[in-house]
Amino acid sequence: MGNQNNSLTRLALQKFKKNFWGVFSISIIGCIGLLSIFAYLFAPDASKNANQMHLSIHSKSPGFEVQMLTIPSGIESDQNFMSQLFFGEENTDTEIPIQSYKVNDGILTYIEYTSDGLQGLEKQIALSKFPEKDYKEYIDNRNFIFGTDKYGRDYLSRILIGSRISFFIGFVAVFISLLVGLLMGSLAGYYGGKVDAFIMWIINITWSIPTLLLVIAITLALGKGFWQVFIAVGLTMWVEVARVVRGQIISAKEMQYVTAAKALGYNDYRIVTKHILPNIFGPLIVISAANFAAAILIESGLSFLGIGAQPPMASWGAMIKDHYNYIILGKPYLALIPGFCIMLLVMAFMLVGNALRDALDVKT
User: Fold this and answer.
1) CATH superfamily, with its number, for domain 2-34+156-360
2) Where residue 81 falls among pLDDT bands split at 50, 70, 90?
3) What confidence score (pLDDT) does residue 120 get?
4) Cis amide bond preceding 312, omega within 30
5) What string of DSSP letters covers 153-217?
6) Which of 69, 110, 207, 278 sits in a 20 to 30 Å window from 235, CA-based?
7) Bridge partners, residue 313, by sequence
8) C-alpha neighbours within 13 Å on the C-beta side of residue 15
9) Do 339 and 346 touch, CB atoms closer than 8 A?
């Protein structure tokens, strides 16, 4: 049995490798996954949640460049490298976009940046504010590749950090749905009778409630927040898993290897976990890939409605919500960029699901 499973797995992998779109989509998912994990390493604005606001340069087009003056606060952070890598830097310095500057008699005079050709305010700061009076290290040309959002934050950094929520909600939601769905589906399919009728009654009630309304209800019950959304989405996706597992176990428990396991005196737990479930993982892998895509869309919808990830946390759905009105104001890219990212990630998971379905189909 072990050798047969290994050969079937090897055959499925060979078929999957021949599917161009499946391999291409896996590559996209892997790249987005790496970018989301190490987002602060790649983001131009590595502050926590990329939340450095500069209202004077709000809603600037992609490729916008400006001089940025950083005024050190003198407060030393005790944050370690790992914390900076995964949670962002605790930046206490002040950043000011400027049009020009000059130095005279130990005084740095600068003109703040303003749009539409207006003259900004002229301000002064003593060079003693800068360590060792080396002010040039604190003035640099800042290039905003994706432009800035309506609060003047670096849009590329927000996109990179926002990928974390959309990417990881798939893993958390699918894990919760598999945990609950496997338990409920296994009990219903293996024992049947009143247990099956009761669990199917719960499944049918849950199935009859619109998914978005159920997620909103659970989110409101648990409270607004990052992990609450993850749990809420996961608790609404177990129904599909439970129905698939139930149907597969009803078919599998009549097989000869299950009868042989019962004859050897194995308990129900071992028969289900060691013998039945390993033989029905194919459909579960396919439905899990589809649930990944569904979870991303649900989270984006919740963030768009304002009950998902809360500000200042970056989220693709919330970014669309903040900028959808810019579509008719001449800057549609502010809403289209996060929308395209959502579409790309969802499409990648759907294509992977289709490729896995074809690879695991023994008839082909």
Assistant:
1) MetI-like (1.10.3720.10)
2) confident
3) 83
4) yes
5) -BHHHHHHHHHHHHHHHHHHHHHHHHHHHHHHHHHHHHH-HHHHHHHHHHHHHHHHS-HHHHHHH
6) 278
7) none
8) 18
9) no
Number of residues that make up the chain = 364
At residue 25 the predicted structure's pLDDT band, cuts being 50, 70 and 90, is very high
Q: Decide if pLDDT at 1 tops 70.
A: no
Question: Residue 135 — pLDDT band, cuts 50, 70, 90?
Answer: confident
The whole-angstrom separation of Cα 178 and Cα 122 is 61
Q: Tell me the two tokens of residue 195.
A: 């247990």
| Average pLDDT across the chain, whole number | 87
Do residues 196 and 243 lie in contact, with contact meaning Cβ atoms separated by under 8 Å?
no
Give phi and psi for 178, each to the nearest 5.
Answer: -65, -40
- 8 A C-beta contact, residue 159 and residue 269: no
CATH 1.10.3720.10, the chain: domain bounds = 2-34+156-360
Query: Roughly what angle, to the nearest 10 degrees, separates helices 238-252 and 193-208?
Result: 150
What are 73's two structure tokens? 């606060």
The residue written with tokens 């929520």 in the block is 165
Name the residue type at position 67: Q
pLDDT tens for residues 301-322? 888 888 877 888 899 999 999 9
Q: Which alpha helices (H) appear in the chain, and where do they start and end? A: 2-17, 20-37, 39-42, 81-87, 155-191, 193-208, 211-222, 226-235, 238-252, 256-263, 268-270, 281-305, 316-323, 333-360
124 close to 69: Cβ distance less than 8 angstroms: no
- Reduced to 3 states (helix: H, G, I; strand: E, B; else coil), residue 67 is strand
Per-residue tokens: 52: 């450095």
User: Tell me, what's the pLDDT at 362?
Assistant: 54
Burial label, 63 (beta-carbon count in 10 A; 0-12, 13-18, 19+): exposed
Average pLDDT estimate for 228-233 = 82
Beta pairing partners, 67: 98, 141
CA 330 to chain centre: 28
Query: In whole angstroms, what is the distance from residue 172 CA to residue 329 CA?
Result: 37
Of residues 356, 237, 229, 343, the one with CA closest to residue 289: 356
